[in-house]
Amino acid sequence: MSADFLPVVRTVAELRAQVRAWRGAGDTVAMTPTMGALHEGHLSLVRLAKARARRVVASIFVNPTQFGPNEDFDRYPRNEAGDAELLASAGCDLLYAPDVSQIYPAGFSTKVTISGVSEPLDGAARPGHFDGVATVVAKLLNQAQPDVAVFGEKDYQQLQLIRRLALDLDLPVEIIGAPTARAEDGLALSSRNAYLTPEQRIIAGRLNVVLADAVSRLKAGDSVEKVEATGRAALERQGFERIDYFEVRHALDLSHPGPGVLSVPGRVLAAAFLGKTRLIDNMAV
Amino acid sequence: MSADFLPVVRTVAELRAQVRAWRGAGDTVAMTPTMGALHEGHLSLVRLAKARARRVVASIFVNPTQFGPNEDFDRYPRNEAGDAELLASAGCDLLYAPDVSQIYPAGFSTKVTISGVSEPLDGAARPGHFDGVATVVAKLLNQAQPDVAVFGEKDYQQLQLIRRLALDLDLPVEIIGAPTARAEDGLALSSRNAYLTPEQRIIAGRLNVVLADAVSRLKAGDSVEKVEATGRAALERQGFERIDYFEVRHALDLSHPGPGVLSVPGRVLAAAFLGKTRLIDNMAV
């Protein structure tokens, strides 16, 4: 087997047979669910997974139910052959690339809803998005039954939602958050960065700078409301065309920390558009 | 260990440790979730479970989220010591009797909703009931991780909902339906029968007779709508005080079979009150 060859399975039965074989041999198993269009950020998840378990299965499934009607499901980039090569190079042992029929067979009727953590920010900006995420992640984790699963902090609200999901539904898996991988100018790596024009790409690189500045101001004792207003104004000044949110939140459940000086573990989160491309990023306080 | 001694665990950690020990010894595991107040019907589930797996864990949890605000959560009968004796006598190996904090810890935020099968009949009569059932059953099955789980056909809509749940969320468990256990006069055994006065108990015994008559009429070619009207009238004549439904449904997904002669696998289902006690029953066509 060459270093860059990656076995691919497309059905739950094949996936479970491989995981069962690994378990039978005494190996632990990690999973990294993705939507493909892989970049260095995803590969850092795979490497972290490989450090935490003997075997790593990555999934690629562009989940239609987490896209809104006017979002980019159809144009979301797809390149399975290229993705498979990258996964193999990062130490992944198996690619699970199910057809839609393996995930949503005829008669599918179930929805998993997480209240609280899923409601503000991307939950408010993208109605139904997190129901789609929670449902498909519950399914993927039950299909593979890994010991650990790795998700990126880049999608911080999603990560906290998945932690809640695993806890609340007693999924027998440990959820691990991986630090956001960034380009040289600090832009959080994202498959959607590929949509950006060269001009937009330059502006995009300021989002992380504005977030880091907000973190500094909060640490220096500026009030939550002042930091939020300053951050929004800075993004507008940098050329972002529409700002969905620029907010300071409780790090754990994304509830509002209240006005004044931040007194709880915090997270600053932002979502803003350049043209039709929506970028998100976040940083710990 | 005497034949009637039954080990009890109250936490997920203890439950999983026991199931893991059984699996390690090569044993298969079955689960029968209950709300306690056990009768011969539950014991028939335990016996069926024991026939399908080497080890049987029964759970007793009176789930608050599946009771409506004006339903009988507070007065629902509870008798753990008596239940444990009965379970042991039927071959059960372990009782899982969690505190509410093991099921709904602080911050619990997740709801599992099944559309379609959960919507008519008891779903219409008891808003939120089946969300509560789906959520707690997903949890209990993930907590115990049995190979098979047994549910009674007495709660037929619940059984079909749980089949859908397990399929849709890829729960790695086989769902088994068990035939309804009945008293000598055919009354479906139910913990709620204990609420009946002697006079009500006599009337209750007619519900299954009216259902069986509906099945005969459907088999003889009577139309769905005629059989439903005849059944409702018969229940009223017998002294039932309020009829939630008396309906012919598609056996699989509980959709309406359409008017005229029944041309699909059918199920006749009824729910009716005697005083404050709500009785349900159903039969296959």
Query: For this entry, what is the oligomeric state of its chains?
Result: homodimer
What structural category arises from helix and sheet content of chain A?
alpha/beta
Number of H- or I-type helical stretches of chain A: 10
Helix content of chain A: 25-40%
**How far apart are the first and last residues' alpha carbons of chain A, in Å?**
45 Å
Q: What CATH architecture of the largest domain in chain A do you see? A: 3-Layer(aba) Sandwich
Radius of gyration computed on alpha carbons of chain A: 19 Å
CATH class term of the largest domain in chain A: Alpha Beta
| Overall spatial form of chain A | globular
- Strand count of chain A: 10
Total domain count of chain A: 2
- Taking pLDDT < 50 over at least 5 consecutive residues as the criterion, the unreliable ranges of chain A are none
Topology order of chain A in helix (H) and strand (E) letters: EHEHEHEHEHHEHEHHHEEE
By CATH's scheme, which homologous superfamily of the largest domain in chain A applies? HUPs
Give me some keywords for this one.
homodimer; 285 residues; alpha/beta; Rossmann fold; Pantoate--beta-alanine Ligase, Chain: A,domain 2; 2 domains; 6-stranded parallel β-sheet; 3-stranded antiparallel β-sheet
